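User: Reviewer 2 asked us to show a designed sequence for the structure in our supplementary figure. I'm pasting the structure tokens here. Could you produce the per-position amino acids so we can include them in the response letter?
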């Protein structure tokens, strides 16, 4: 009887308790399109109005929450920017629930859960794109710049917590490799639901748990509407510019397809509005070319200091890029093909007045130049990336043409013309096999070839003057073959890599028309071979204990150098150990300490017995000795983040010491400068510190950032046989803030201030400062209309107390015809500032400089989206 009574009491109580502990799950859909809504905030509130549980919908619009302490009488609320809030009684719905959101507005105060914007799960940080986007944003790069902890350069390069990322994925696939700037500047932010940052990301699955990575990767999570289909958007703009006077254009076509077994991004861009497109194809992950060739000839067009390209660049630019990825079987094949063309013109006028007792001497110099740059690159990759095997073969080719023509008139007239093609081809193969769980075998093969011919033609006094011609032929081949074995035992990974490197290089140069410069040297011809063979071994020890990773590298090598009688052959041994410690006590804090010492050979390009002319008044002499340099370095950095509060901070301190037994020497011969190298102790030190703090400002859907840096460098050289010791110091501080304090208003503001000083032989120059202010205001008077006003202020200190101020103003008005078509009109450089002029004075002379700027520019544009 008692048992029945107890049972009759317990079962109803259990039923009530289970009802109160019901897990809440379901889906959130757009009522108009029936498509999933990603990134929506789903909150369970109790009868007291307090939050009991919360979640965010995934890319499929789904959510699930573990049982709360009680749900009886509570409410389920769903919030998403751009939609009206939904609030349902939990007792009145069936689980799983389907919730439909209607388009509408939402008050900012209702978005109160900070985790809606940024959330963390393990080593993955997820940013909700919709909560950071503003009305004027176009690309995902525009939104990434507002996410604390993430920094995006104008080229599209991304850093997380002050470090370069090591991968950029789109839906988990590495389509673009290091050329992800095409994606950050091209993908429409409205097609991206979330941005994932994967900390300590190891790209090669076969190394997971064996080799530590302190780098982060970015992954774009697309919305369903952008998956399994082609998505297009295009812009076409035309108008008129007052300087350079004539028609201007700016056009872009961007297409992307993200499918289960295929991805593609193809883009076409062209403009003459001051945007150099060549940086869009930069490979941020590219390794340094081991061929080691660098151009001797150097002709630079006149530039304008401290102003952005859109104010100073007179260009005609063109870019086409197509990138594809096919998944088949257990691997994938990728192709990246790019072609870019840039035509840049520049003009400058300088007047130097020397104050002399017998009358002033005025020297004028008017420089006018044109540069044509063509670049064609292709990369073809096969990759298999599994937990037990990794195979990668990358075939890469680059063909570049760079032609520069620079004419100087005035007191010392001259004409310079350079033809600078570059041909490069490489193939890199890597295979890693993991067996018995903790053993690895690795094979690598790298082969590179490069040809860098250079031609310099000079006319030293107009059409009837002296003609000088220089031809340089420079070719190199590099090969590297290696094998490695590694195993892991109780948190300790031991590996040994051994290999051989070979290098063949030939360079010859000849100058004609320099007979009148025989007082400098009688040798203007070079025929040089610089070859070497290196064998090496690299033991490596990696130890994992709790949340600490210790890594010790002990590379040792032996090299044999031959120089075909240019200098004596050499045999050298090198040892360059390094140590690193990474500590991550929790998901909020991490720190690292790195140090190393090393001994390395000199730059082999410095070995040439004869003089080489680099431009119309500069020549370089090579070394007659083989030198080795030594160095030490010590770096420490710390990172902190609190994702719930949207706080990210990082700092870094670095000290380096270098010891070089030679230094650069400068000698003047009438109008010419000759640089050479001389035996001299040349010890230098560099200290650098930088820090960055970023924070979300949820009350106005914004964020802020403060950064600072300090740098001190010591260096030495010889000038006119006199030792010149220089110490440069610089520091900078900057800040950014953005937000949308009202539905109809958003803003972006940035300020940067920098100060620098140069001390030469204990003679202190004045500290000189630079300051830049940038402000963008976007006003939305009506939901289809948008007005943007942008202003820039530049304040440059030319000499102590002598400042040059410059104000620039732009405006743009946009009309949203419908969801797919947008019309706009923009007016750039409203004040029509056409030149950047300044004058500086000293006790003995005055210097006046004039540079041209892009004048007022009117553009009408149309944007189409699919």
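Assistant: Here is a per-position design you can include in the supplement:
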């Amino acid at each position: 009887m008692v048992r029945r009574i107890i049972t009759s009491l317990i079962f109803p109580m259990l039923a009530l308790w289970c009802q109160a502990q019901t897990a809440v799950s379901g889906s959130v859909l757009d009522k108009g399109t029936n498509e999933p809504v990603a990134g929506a905030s789903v909150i369970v509130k109790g009868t007291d109005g307090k939050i009991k549980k919360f979640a965010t919908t995934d890319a499929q619009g789904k959510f699930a929450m573990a049982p709360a302490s009680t749900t009886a009488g509570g409410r389920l609320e769903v919030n998403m920017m751009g939609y009206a809030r939904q609030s349902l009684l939990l007792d009145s719905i069936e689980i799983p629930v389907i919730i439909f959101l209607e388009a509408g507005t939402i008050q900012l105060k209702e978005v109160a859960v900070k985790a809606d914007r940024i959330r963390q799960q393990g080593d993955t940080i997820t940013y909700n794109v919709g909560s950071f986007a503003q009305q004027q944003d176009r690309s995902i790069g525009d939104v990434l710049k507002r996410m604390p902890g993430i920094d995006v350069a104008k080229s599209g390069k991304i850093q997380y917590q002050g470090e370069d990322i090591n991968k950029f994925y789109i839906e988990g696939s590495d389509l673009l490799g290091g050329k992800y700037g095409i994606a950050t500047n091209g993908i429409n932010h409205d097609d991206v639901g979330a941005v994932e940052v994967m900390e300590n990301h190891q790209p090669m699955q076969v190394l997971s748990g064996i080799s530590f990575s302190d780098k982060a990767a970015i992954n774009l999570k697309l919305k369903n509407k952008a998956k399994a289909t082609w998505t297009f958007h295009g812009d076409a703009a035309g108008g008129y510019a007052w300087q350079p006077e004539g028609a201007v254009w700016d056009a872009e076509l961007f297409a992307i397809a993200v499918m289960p077994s295929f991805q593609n991004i193809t883009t076409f861009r062209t403009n003459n509005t001051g945007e150099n497109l060549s940086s869009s194809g930069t490979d941020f992950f590219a390794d340094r070319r081991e061929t080691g060739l660098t151009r001797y000839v150097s002709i630079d067009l006149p530039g304008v200091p401290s102003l952005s390209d859109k104010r100073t660049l007179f260009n005609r630019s063109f870019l086409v890029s197509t990138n594809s990825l096919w998944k088949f079987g257990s691997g994938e094949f990728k192709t990246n093909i790019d072609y870019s063309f840039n035509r840049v013109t520049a003009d400058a006028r300088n007047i130097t007045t020397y104050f002399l007792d017998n009358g002033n001497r005025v020297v004028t110099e008017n420089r006018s130049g044109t540069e044509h740059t063509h670049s064609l690159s292709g990369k073809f990759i096969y990759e298999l990336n599994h937990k037990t095997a990794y195979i990668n073969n990358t075939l890469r080719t680059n063909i570049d043409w760079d032609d520069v023509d620079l004419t100087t008139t005035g007191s010392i007239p001259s004409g310079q013309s350079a033809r600078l093609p570059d041909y490069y081809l490489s193939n890199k193969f890597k295979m890693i096999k993991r067996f018995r769980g903790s053993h690895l075998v690795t094979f690598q093969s790298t082969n590179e070839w490069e040809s860098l011919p250079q031609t310099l033609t000079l006319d030293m006094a107009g059409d009837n003057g002296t003609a000088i011609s220089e031809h340089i032929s420079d070719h190199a081949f590099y090969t590297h073959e290696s094998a490695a074995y590694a195993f892991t035992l109780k948190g300790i990974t031991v590996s040994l890599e051994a290999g051989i490197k070979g290098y063949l290089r030939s360079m010859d140069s000849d100058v004609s028309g320099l007979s009148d410069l025989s007082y400098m040297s009688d040798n203007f011809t070079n025929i040089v071979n610089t070859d070497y063979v290196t064998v090496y071994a690299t033991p490596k020890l990696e130890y994992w204990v709790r949340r600490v990773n210790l890594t010790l590298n002990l590379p040792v090598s032996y090299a044999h150098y031959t120089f075909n009688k240019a200098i004596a052959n050499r045999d050298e041994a090198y040892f360059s150990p390094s140590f690193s410690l990474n500590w991550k006590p929790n998901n909020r804090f991490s720190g690292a300490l790195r140090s190393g010492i090393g001994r390395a050979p000199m730059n082999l390009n410095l070995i040439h017995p004869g003089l080489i002319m680099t431009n119309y008044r500069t020549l370089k002499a090579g070394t007659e000795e083989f030198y080795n340099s030594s160095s030490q370095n010590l770096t420490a950095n710390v990172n902190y983040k609190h994702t719930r509060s949207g706080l990210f901070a990082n700092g870094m301190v670095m000290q380096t010491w270098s010891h070089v037994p030679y230094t650069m020497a400068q000698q003047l011969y009438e109008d010419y400068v000759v640089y050479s190298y001389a035996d001299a102790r040349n010890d230098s030190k560099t200290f650098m510190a930088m820090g960055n703090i970023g924070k979300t400002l949820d009350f106005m859907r914004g964020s802020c950032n403060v950064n600072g840096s300090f740098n001190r460098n010591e260096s030495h050289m010889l000038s006119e046989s006199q030792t010149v010791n220089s110490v440069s110091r610089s520091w900078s501080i900057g800040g950014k803030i953005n937000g949308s304090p009202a539905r109809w208003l958003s803003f972006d503001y940035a300020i940067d201030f920098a100060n620098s000083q140069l001390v030469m032989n204990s003679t202190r120059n004045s500290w000189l400062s630079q300051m830049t202010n940038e402000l963008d205001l976007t006003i939305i008077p009506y939901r289809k209309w948008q007005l943007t006003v942008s202003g820039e202020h530049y304040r440059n200190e030319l000499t102590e107390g002598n400042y040059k101020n410059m104000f620039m103003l732009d405006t743009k008005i946009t009309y949203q015809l419908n969801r797919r078509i947008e019309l706009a009109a923009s007016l750039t450089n409203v004040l029509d500032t056409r030149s950047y002029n300044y004058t500086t004075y000293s006790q003995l002379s005055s210097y006046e400089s004039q540079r041209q700027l892009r004048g007022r520019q009117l553009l009408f544009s149309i944007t189409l989206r699919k």
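For the response letter, you might also mention the following. DSSP finds five helices and 51 strands in the chain. Confidence is low (pLDDT under 50) at residues 5-21, 105-115.
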